[in-house]
Amino acid sequence: xxxxxxxxxxxxxxxxxxxxxxxxxxxxxxxxxxxxxxxxxxxxxxxxxxxxxxxxxxxxxxxxxxxxxxxxxxxxxxxxxxxxxxxxxxxxxxxxxxxxxxxxxxxxxxxxxxxxxxxxxxxxxxxxxxxxxxxxxxxxxxxxxxxxxxxxxxxxxxxxxxxxxxxxxxxxxxxxxxxxxxxxxxxxxxxxxxxxxxxx
Length: 200
Known about the structure:
By secondary structure, the protein is an alpha/beta fold. The chain has helices at 17-26, 37-44, 48-55, 70-76, 89-100, 106-112, 123-140, 159-166, 180-199, and strands spanning 7-9, 60-61, 81-86, 148-152.
């Protein structure tokens, strides 16, 4: 089948965006764009010509800022495909609170509001924005099911849903899961077990 022009991951942070990026690389969708602070400045200034120039050098996009400007990207790059990564709301808010804590960033101020640059203390605001985003994406693509793949990590993401939308063959290898927090926890358990065994 014809290779898609561009693939935009439009799920919020901590919804498996790293796993999606790795999946796209396995499928040959490359290069993958990396976020830069200068890009946010262009978006806030509505300088989408600069955004277009930036995007011209990439085929795959995941994490911020693409979830917030997916409609502009859809119009800017006709024929592109979109991937919404989602997870249970409770698990999501716990994950971002643990990961970001009280750290403020301009990106999160832009997404959640000037007074809500960190998730701690703004959990309800974050959850409402997250739920609203997912509903808006599903509504936007409601009559275009062939342009949107929804990967639900709560139910278990799979190659089939992604590849059906992208028009690509399903790889033989397992779908990637790059949850660094879980990997660090597992590594810690292995180290503890190893030390315990050595001491026996």
